[in-house]
Specification:
The chain is α/β, with parallel strands linked by helices. The protein contains 14 helices and 13 strands. The radius of gyration is 21 Å and the shape is globular.
Length: 391
């Protein structure tokens, strides 16, 4: 008999494939033989100097309580409410913002606030591989619903068919990891109309959790609409780790849609603090909160990221790969030649090029490339991609 709880075992099972890949994908490979590691969205160059300077400036204490316990501090919440309101055209208030340990912490907070054991949450397939494990850690039920085949747009009819009496949340990830698709305002309005109708049928609101950590990483001038603009029962999660390419910098937030009914907003605001404490003090460290005003103004080079996207996408499509051209994020998603992502990624690895197999997204015929590798890595990977089509 295991000493672990059934909840812990279920949560571990939900992400076991990812961790087995993470711990072993470069086993036996000398670093000098690695041409390009294009697996996870990690940095491969030194951090942004402006980001480092902003954090260094806040490490120097200016009062005796500089490093005292911090929850969601007033100053960063005010900065974020103003910036988010200007960005999305919605009147956010500081009390609508809960500071969290990255978007991951915000997602965990939303699940804790809204889900009882046995409640269901609809998640996209393919989609981020940590939704299911985070849900199972709360004894909630992940319900994967495929995106539209070929376009990876939201399939509103499929989402509606998956809604049952215990459905409480629909996760909408835009721009979408791993495909880079950004959902149109028209599609989000369609989803909102359906959820409004189904909520009325169930007698309680179905929430949207709008997972937006890549919101500011967009290409070709593609516009962005948040579900919060069209559906009142929306919560937004965001992380600074993407726009700064610093995933180890654990700061983000959960934002309550301003048009949500006042009673519901009040209940969420009141419960957020205690849920964050109960969730293991889910607040960013003090210096990071002090630095928010500066972090809001800092960004990786989106133009350089787009050039890397265009270089890889152009080369791979030229060689016969079926690729989805991302409108945002820093990933490139495609179909493996022959439809075997594990065999394909092993062939690339034999040549020192590492990408993520689609099996981690329950799509065994597909693969994901992270564009956060350097331009030199991108160039060095191209012969391996070309050779992989010849088998």
């Amino acid at each position: 008999m295991s000493i672990l709880s059934a909840r812990a075992i279920s949560s571990a099972d939900a992400i076991d494939t990812v961790f087995r890949f993470f711990s072993s994908y470069r086993d036996g490979v000398d670093d000098k033989d690695v041409r390009a590691d294009l697996t996870f969205g990690n940095p491969h160059e030194m951090p942004l100097p402006a980001m480092v300077a902003a954090i260094k400036a806040r490490m120097e204490p200016k009062s005796a309580n500089w490093f005292a316990y911090k929850t969601s501090e007033e100053e960063p919440r005010t900065v974020i409410a103003e910036a988010l309101g200007a960005e999305l055209g919605l009147p956010f208030h500081p009390e609508d913002i809960a500071m969290t340990q990255g978007a991951f912490g915000a997602i965990a907070l939303a699940f804790s606030l809204l889900l009882d054991p046995g409640d269901e949450c609809i998640i996209p397939q393919p989609g981020w591989f940590c939704y299911a494990t985070t849900l199972r850690a709360r004894n909630a039920v992940p319900v994967p619903v495929p995106l539209a085949e070929g376009t990876f747009d939201l399939d509103v009819a499929a989402i509606e068919a998956a809604i049952l009496p215990r459905t409480r949340i629909v996760v909408v990830n835009t721009p979408h990891n791993p495909t880079g698709v950004i959902y149109s305002r028209e599609r989000l309005i369609e989803l909102a109309a359906m959820l409004t109708r189904k909520s009325a049928e169930l007698g309680r609101p179905i929430f949207i959790l709008s997972d937006e950590p890549y919101r500011r990483i967009r290409f070709d001038g593609v516009p962005f609409t948040s579900p919060a603009a069209v559906y009142p029962h929306t919560l937004i999660d965001y992380s600074y780790g993407k726009i700064l390419l610093a995933p180890g910098l654990r700061i983000g937030y959960l934002a309550i849609c301003p048009s949500m009914p006042e009673a519901d907003k009040k209940a969420l605001r009141a419960a957020a603090l205690t849920s964050q404490v109960g969730g293991g003090w889910n607040f960013p460290d003090a210096p990071l909160q002090y630095a928010v005003a500066d972090l809001e103004r800092i960004s990786i080079d989106i133009g350089e990221l787009q050039r890397k996207r265009d270089r890889l996408h152009g080369a791979l499509t030229q060689w016969g790969y079926s690729m989805t051209k991302p409108e945002g994020t820093f990933y490139l998603w495609g179909r493996t030649p022959g439809g075997d992502s594990v065999g394909f990624t092993r062939r690339l690895a034999d040549q020192g090029v590492f990408v993520m197999p689609g099996t981690l997204f329950d799509r065994p015929a597909d693969f994901r490339i992270s564009l956060t590798g350097t331009a030199d890595m991108i160039e060095a990977s191209l012969p391996a991609f070309q050779a992989a089509t010849e088998r």
